[in-house]
Amino acid sequence: MTTAPATKAMAEQPIGVIAQEEAAAASAIRDAAIAIGLDPGARPVGLRPLPFSGAWGSASTIARMLASNVVSAELEAAGKLEGLGKKQAKQFVNDGVNSRAQELAEAIADHVRESGRFATVEAVNGYINISYDALSVARRLLHEVLRQDDTYGHAPEATHPGRIMIEHSQLNTHKAAHVGHLRNVCLGVAVTNIARAAGYTIMPTTYIGDIGRHVIQCLWCYREFHQGEEPHRKGSRGRWLGDIYAESSARLTFRKSVLAFLDRVIQENIVFVEAIDRMLKKLWADHNESEDIAYLLGCVSNQKAIDPAVFVDDTVMVKFWPIIGEQLTQERDAPPPEPDDTAGTVTPEGEDQPETMSPEERVEEWARLNATMADWWPQSATWEQEIKDTFQLWEQKDPEFVALWEKTREWSMIELREIFDEFGATFDEWFCESGVEDAGRKIVRDLLEEGIAEISEGLPVVKIDEKLGLETETYRTMPILRSDGTTLYSTKDLALTRMKFVDYGVDTAVWVVDVRQSLYFDQISKILEISGFAQAANTIHLGYEFVALPTGTISSRKGNAPMLEDVRGLMLDRAARVIEQKNPQMDRAAREKVAWQVGIGAIKYTMLARDSNKVIVFDPEEALSFDGHAAPYIQYAHARACRILEHAGWDTAAANAAVETIDLPEPAPEELSLLQTISDFPAVVQRAGAEYRPLYLTNYVYDLSKTFNDFYHACPVLRSDEPVKTARLTLVAATRVTLRNGLALLGINAPEEM
User: Does pLDDT of 83 surpass 80?
Assistant: First the structure.
């Protein structure tokens, strides 16, 4: 499986005016080389932009490559390389290349110059520098942009062969969506848009997690502790289920959290240990029949970790817990100790020392656990078994349980559809985990019958490394079904991926899933390869790092994730205030529309403007910046272009008719830079589409906005005389089109006023 973005072949036909100009330059250089008796062979003529300010053209190093070949052949024919080592021979050849490269470059440049196709052709230090006719190229470029309008930068459909299925936005039912989930949604939407614009045949799909451990947990908690309850507002049902899921996780991890906290304070504070030791002895004197008190006493006295499996009487911890709180409170309220003579001792280099909790933090954590201690601790010993029993209700398709699942699933699905609509996620196919369980069991049976899978310690597994004959541990062993017959993620993903190849004729399957699942998807691909699916070698895991807050990481299990609903509200409210400050004359309806475009655009851009292998720290203030690398800055550049054209009474139809005769004498450096940047757009789309990397496009639209602002401040538009005014207005119109198209591929709206 390909775990990094795969580079695909570029389109055979050059896309965009500059690509066509570069193709003409490369062809002219190749023909010239052949004309002087030097065939460059099948190797492409490499070109790069001229590295000179105010120049628009391409440079080639082909003369240096040909010179190396010529010098090597001459020296070898003369026997001058005999007896030399590889390094010495290479240095000997290089010594003769410089002068010969310039000679060949001049000969090639003479032939290219004769065509009259380019403004200038020069041979400099063995390089061939070709300058384009700025006015001619500018006219063609502006005509292309204005004529193609909202398809500028797009390749023709099916430019590249094959069908690619991109699976993204795999949100779960029975959980509330939080801001961390948006990286997947925004990345999936952008990758789909860009790859399609680059000329690939794309089939976007989603895979909804509507069954599994998290759903069982949520429904167990609902049935046991919230039966018959419903939120007051229908629109908040999904979030309410998310709260129940977070509660279920807190309940199921309660014992572990209590004992981990107790272990920590025992290890950190000897004074605490001595005090608790005395209190436990008193408690034991009052309840000397309890083995659990004796066990706790031994653990505390010897500062040993507490094993939850040893407890017999679950009321003991409830009795013991207030003693801990009393002692922790006394510690917190006690005067600070005298300075320790050993203070300032340096920790040995390389040793990781966990940060000690402060007295205030200990009391706070004790109080959090104490809030549910009396209720949760006595019951918690049986909860894991109850989860297993609830899972069996699903496996047996208990009518009452299935009805509850269907009702609560739809509560979540309503909210998920709204999220997808708001963030521009559309799908050709919706897959659900519940829909592939039976197919998953079938593929497990097939793998067992084929001898690819085997039973190990009661579990069907595939020993992938062994099947591939690998001696070094690489793909390891993957369980593909639980011992009780319930399905795993792998059960369902194996079935779904096989369906993609068999039922949908997919050539390349792309998973947009966080980077921590890389080994997992490697295993899925390899198992399918072993079972005969050649397409599995073309699967791509488009991994991405998680989203954090300035205060730390996000987890829906811990309930510390900022809900999408809250983040959305915060961003829209702040965007509305900023828009009102910048444009107080805008009417309320328009302000609300623009605030939505800016607020949602800011979220999307933040999720895309950092490379996938980097953690995103989501800061609402930075996301809404009008001055930095953020969506509002780019959207404002687009709005400014719209305002200039509006004030000029711009007529798009008339401009399109006259663009081929536009006069732009001696473009200013800022005009030329803007033209060059606009001309880069089709190539950026191709590269971003080939590598599944929207970052290229976020950087591009930001650079285009900066270049446009430089142009705007250096080159008056409305105050210029003709023909410069019309030429600059046309350039503004082309910028508007390109910014709008670039933002659209990222899934971001381009407001016309801000």
Answer: no
Residues 6+ apart with CB under 8 A from 468: 474, 475, 526, 530
CB contact set of 578 (below 8 Å; sequence gap of 6+): 598, 624, 626, 632
**CA distance to 261, 309, 372, 376, 385, per residue, from 380 (Å):** 17, 12, 11, 6, 10
Which pLDDT tens digit goes with each residue over 149-166?
A: 999 999 998 899 999 999
Gap between the Cα atoms of 726 and 372, Å rounded: 73
- Within-domain flag for 623: yes
Asked whether the beta carbons of 325 and 366 are under 8 A apart, the reply is yes
Distances (CA, A) of 489 to 205, 210, 480: 18, 12, 8
Integer angstrom CA distances of residue 421 from 188, 332, 747: 14, 51, 11
- Claim: this prediction has a pTM higher than 0.70: yes
Rg of the chain over all Cα atoms, to the nearest angstrom: 34
Amino acid letter, residue 744? A
**First-to-last CA distance in the chain?**
46
Going along 256-304, which residue ranges are E strands?
A: none
Give the per-residue pLDDT at 549.
77
Q: Say how far apart CA 372 and CA 380 lie, in whole Å.
A: 11
**What range does the domain containing 227 cover?**
211-336+355-424
Residues 99 and 245 in one domain: no
pLDDT at 713 (0 to 100): 96
Contact 254, 277 (CB under 8 A): no
CA–CA gap between residue 218 and residue 213 (Å, rounded): 9
Model pLDDT, residue 463: 98
Query: What is the spatial order of strands in the sheet that 616-617 belongs to?
Result: 552-553, 547-549, 616-617
Mean pLDDT, to the nearest integer, of 247-266?
90
Concatenate the DSSP letters of all residues of 53-116 into one string. Answer: TT--EEEE-HHHHHHHHHHHHHHHHTTTTTT--HHHHHHHHHHHHHHHHHHHHHHHHHHHHHT-
In a domain, 372, yes or no: yes
Q: Over range 499-508, report the average pLDDT.
A: 96
**Which phi and psi (to 5°) does residue 237 adopt?**
-65, -40
Would you say residue 457 lies in a domain? Answer: no
593 SS3 class: helix
> In the structure, what pLDDT confidence band is assigned to residue 51 with cuts at 50, 70 and 90?
confident
Contact status, residue 50 vs residue 131, Cβ threshold 8 Å: yes
The β-bridge partners of 695 are none
**Number of other CB atoms surrounding residue 703 within 10 Å:** 15
Tell me: cis bond preceding 723? Omega within 30 of 0 counts. Answer: yes
* 571 phi and psi angles, rounded to 5 deg: -65, -40
Q: Which of 364, 397, 424 is the last residue of a domain?
A: 424
Give the CATH number of the domain where residue 687 resides.
1.10.730.10
Mean pLDDT computed over every residue of the chain: 88
